[in-house]
Amino acid sequence: MEASGKVGLFGAAGAAGQSIAAALSAAGRDYRAVGRSRQPLEAAFGHDPRAEIVTWNPADPASIRAAAAGLQTVIYLVGVPYDQFAAHPPLMEKTLAGVVAAGVERLILIGTVYPYGRARSNPISENHPREPHTFKGRMRLAQENLVLAAHGHHGLSTLVLRLPDFYGPGVERSLLNGVFEGAATAKRAQMVGPVDVPHEFIYLPDVGPVVETLTRTPAAFGRWWHLAGAGTLTQREVARQAYALAGREPKLMVAGKTMLRVLGLFNPLMRELVEMNYLMTEPVVLDDSALTKLIGPIAKTSYEEGIRRSFEAARDAASAGGATQRSAAKTV
């Protein structure tokens, strides 16, 4: 491992950015949190003296260059709305031009399983064909091809780290978030089915330390890697464990593909979920033995522990919300 230069998190305000920032901070490293608006960045990183907060406009080359100035490594976490995936490749093209102009040495894209399409067998290693049959998969493939093609040019090294679906305390954009909220509030959990197929989830706080290690591992660059979860389990089992922590029987409302189609008539996000529903019926499970061989053993939180922490965070948020409502009622 080499000495570490400054890291910038582009699209930092999401849950993955916060996990990586926590790992950088724990390693005693300064970092730059970059996002479109200041308020969520201040909320997420304002307490950390190691954080420098910078806003940018990812459509403006000068803004990208300014956001990247003085950084050794950029970690790219920029999201787009689920119904605007066509924006992924042009945003990445602009970002690559900006980081090259700023003299950045390394870029890490946090990627997904979408570019693989359907798994030919599970678990899959990095040599599985990338043959997406969905529009979102093709857009993500085009995005990561831009990143990989940039490796070795203009002093830039690149890599893609591929993650499965994630979950964790307060991670709202997780398939499992409805389970923890339902268990915490004694309500019905909203879920996307089917819920009895074994699925792989990664506990998001486990991602940060791996990414921090990769930023100072030159041998990792020039290819893509897998980071797997702690095995597989069904969504029904997650619900059983979460509701048991609350002393309750699970109550589930499961939307399968047909229900998603109907809901999609009224809700664009639900319409977009139809295309990716194959990942619920035919999950892609990742083999990360190559990454383990490169960086050594990877600490992974067990599902039992991850579910407990996620439930406790949802319970705390529910009780805090209830307390806020009660105090507001008193002041009316």
From TrEMBL:
InterPro entries on file: Epimerase_deHydtase (IPR001509), NAD(P)-bd_dom_sf (IPR036291), NAD(P)-dependent_oxidoreduct (IPR051783)
Gene3D superfamilies attached to this UniProt entry: NAD(P)-binding Rossmann-like Domain (3.40.50.720)
An annotated GO cellular component: cytoplasm
Domain of life assignment: Bacteria
Span of domain NAD-dependent epimerase/dehydratase: 10-210
SUPFAM superfamilies: NAD(P)-binding Rossmann-fold domains
GO function terms (MF aspect): aldehyde dehydrogenase (NAD+) activity
Protein name listed in UniProt: NAD-dependent epimerase/dehydratase domain-containing protein
Organism: Paraburkholderia ultramafica
